[in-house]
Amino acid sequence: MPTPSLMRAVRLVTPGAPVQDALVPVPACGPHDVRVRVRAAGICHSDVHYRAGRSRVDPLPLTLGHEVAGDVVEVGSGVATHVVGDRVCLHYLVTCADCADCAAGREPFCATGRMLGHFTDGGWAEEIVVPARNAVPLPATVPYAHGAVMMCSSATSLHALRKGRLAPGEVALVVGAGGLGMSAIQLARLEGASRVLVVERDPAKQALATRLGGEVVDASGDAATVAARVRAAADGRGVDVALELVGGEATVQLALQALAPLGRAVVVGLNPVPVPVDTYRDLIGREGELIGSNDHLLGELHELVALAARGLLVLDDVVTQAVPLEAAAINAVLDALAAHRAPVRTVVEP
What's the number of domains the chain is made of? Predict the structure, then answer.
């Protein structure tokens, strides 16, 4: 059994190798920090890229896990916003809060910013310390597991819809109905989309996407074939905003080719290869836009929690599995995600 000064964690030690069980020191709580007992921490497809070495993790070894919710167990001497016992979910961008980008609401571009589970220790552990401003209140009506996955999959989807400037009455396309996609379908409807078309090959995910208000389009065939089906389903005109949530050459091309005139394709999925783009057909000819979307904003997290508390963002069928804080269990989920055969969303429950 670990001593009181140590805790269990699951860490990436070597890129390209499985994550490992470890005993690490319980993190110290600074004057402006809170220490949180982790109750749920999501396993994201980004973690597959981190483990594989396709996205640099530094420093190593590092505790992964950037979708985190739990209970405050200690507050720093300078913290007046939280008390011990508060339920919270954690904004995964630890920023300076003082630079020009932070002041302008562009915290993903903070020069000293660090992402939990990527450049500083994350939530695949018994406890974690973050600045108090990163701890977003989590109402008792919202389960920890839902609070955790909102911190990435829901937040990333909302930010992508905002980047795509989805307007009421427009038609949206969601390419990939995994954890991000299931939130994106609901959020697009809440943002006023008249219809949300969905491209997804997994029958179980297709069924869930339909229950959440999406209209599934046949995903068989190449990008051009599927894009033609999407345009036909959208009254022959195409979609106004397409979210690419998979990270593949064909899915990016599909999102672009499905656009209506003046449409916006927002790329979120982490793609390991460059994507050829027909700039005249896909961009210039229709005055389309190809937009990158990364991370999210702290204010968007507060919006999401409020939506969940009101029952407008429902994640009951999205978080479909929980595993213990054990490397073997987590590696199995990462293997399944890498093979695109994992459940919609899995959380670690220490």
Answer: 2
